[in-house]
Design brief:
The protein is of the alpha/beta class and 158 residues long. The protein is built from 3 helices and 6 strands; from the N terminus they run αββαβββαβ. It has helices at residues 57-60, 94-100, 131-139, and strands at 76-79, 91-92, 110-113, 123-126, 128-129, 143-146. The protein is elongated and about 95 Å long. The model has no long low-confidence stretch (mean pLDDT 90).
Length: 158
């Protein structure tokens, strides 16, 4: 077998229909377009938006106003009262919170909020802490470590 003898398998290639090339072709005269009207013209037919004159769905729906900032960081909130599950002197970081079920994933940004009281000294590590949470943790004898969230796009849901 030589290079010039190569050809596709039989039936693999189908010849295109040459429409409008006379009676013998079987697709002559109107070339399968029917008679007259918008559909018979070149470039004819209606677009996907057209609904027979009815007000299109896109126009029936209310406007979606405003915009969503793609770079906004949605922090997962954890209140101080929920940190009571950790023993005295424990290090509360993202993996510990995820194991305790306070957050779903350790890879998402977390903010510690000051709702509730803290009666034990904990080392709390989070992306953000509210001023009241910071004060209550220090008042209980604990320490606070805040590390900034490296900019990665996060969706609101998760």
């Amino acid at each position: 077998m030589k290079l010039h003898e190569l050809q596709p398998a039989k039936g693999a290639k189908k010849a295109r229909k040459r429409k409008g090339r006379g009676i013998a072709a079987g697709q002559g005269k109107t070339a399968g377009r029917g008679t007259k009207g918008q559909g018979a013209r070149s470039g004819g037919g209606k677009g996907p938006y057209f609904e027979g004159g009815q007000l299109p769905l896109v126009r029936r729906l209310p406007y979606k106003r405003g915009f969503i900032n793609r770079w906004k960081v949605y922090y997962r909130p954890v209140n101080l009262s929920r940190l009571a599950v950790f023993p005295e002197g424990a290090e509360v970081d993202l993996t510990a919170m995820a194991k305790a079920g306070l957050i779903k994933k350790a890879s998402l940004p977390v903010v510690i909020l000051g709702d509730g009281e803290l009666d034990r000294a904990l080392t709390v590590k989070a992306h953000r802490l509210s001023a009241s949470a910071r004060a209550k943790i220090k008042a209980a004898g604990g320490t606070v470590e805040e590390f900034p969230w490296t900019v990665r796009r996060t969706r609101r849901g998760g």
